[in-house]
Write a structure and sequence with these properties.
Blueprint lengths: L1 H28 L2 E10 L10 E4 L5 E3 L5 E7 L4 E5 L6 E4 L8 E3 L9 E3 L5 E3 L7 E5 H4 L7 H5 L6 E5 L7 E5 L12 E4 L2 E3 L6 E3 L5 E3 L12 E7 L1 H5 L10 E6 L3
Length: about 260
């Protein structure tokens, strides 16, 4: 009789044990784990803030902070994280048993448009500009040696006319998109490393009654070997960046750094 009572007691407890086991397994299945790490760029080794981190095949995601750090809860059963950022190649990485996962993203060639420098050193994508520009690399100025920077720019940018006003060492005229005034010299504003320089023509001194000397204009004194890049801003929209002084266009010259 005692044996039958014990068996009945075990059978009565069995459904409760079964429920506990099922609920425990469901709880384990619903658990998630925290994965943290840092995302940096392979180009310069710096942190990438705002990079996207997504659990594959879910809508669970996050982004890195200003230090390139991220933390994301990954549900049990998910094993792949997707890392992405504008201008970089997207990576899919197996998590495995790791809880700390550092990622290095590689820049994607051709992802962004060419970047140019506009007024006050502001960098903009060339495709986003509302005006025409021309660019000359520093190496192009030295392919054929010229007596000054302006002569080295001749024939390299559409709509730009470069001509000498006299013999060797005299002033050199640069006109963008044709002359706009009969009373002025129509010279553009030159900006060298952020410093505006007037390119006034015909710095002529009278020596004697018939001896006129042209000492050339200021911009001709720049050494072409020191120039890294030249950007020519055309049209009234470009001129608005520097005011009335740039009514004939702007020539931005960036020199080389150590």
């Amino acid at each position: 009789m005692a044996k039958h009572f014990t068996l009945l007691k075990i059978l009565s407890v069995f459904p409760t044990l079964l429920i506990i086991l099922v609920m425990g397994s469901l709880s384990v299945m619903g658990q998630s784990r925290m994965v943290t790490g840092k995302i940096i760029s392979s180009e310069d080794g710096l942190e990438i803030p705002g990079a996207n981190v997504l659990v594959k095949d879910t809508n669970i995601g996050t982004s890195t902070d200003i230090y390139g750090m991220y933390a994301i809860e990954v549900p049990t059963g998910s094993s792949v994280l997707i890392f992405s950022f504008i201008g970089y190649q997207t990576q899919e990485v197996e998590i495995g048993s790791r809880s700390v996962l550092h990622i290095t993203l590689t820049p994607e060639a051709g992802q962004l448009g060419e970047v140019v420098v506009t007024a006050l050193g502001i960098r903009r994508e060339e495709i986003s500009l509302g005006y025409s520009i021309g660019r000359i690399g520093g190496d192009e100025l030295n392919r054929v040696v010229q007596e000054n920077v302006l002569n080295g720019m001749a024939g390299k940018v559409a709509g730009v006319t470069v001509s000498s006003t006299g013999g060797t060492g005299s002033s050199v005229s640069m006109v963008i998109r044709g002359a706009t005034s009969l009373s002025s010299d129509n010279q553009p504003l030159f900006v060298v490393d952020g410093v505006p320089i007037a390119n006034t023509l015909n710095n002529v001194s009278q020596i004697g009654s018939d001896n006129r000397v042209d000492y050339g204009n200021a911009i001709s004194g720049l050494n072409p070997d020191d120039i890294a890049d030249i950007t020519i801003l055309k049209g009234p929209s470009a001129a608005a960046l520097y005011g009335s002084r740039a009514g004939n266009g702007v020539v931005l010259i960036t020199t080389k750094t150590g």
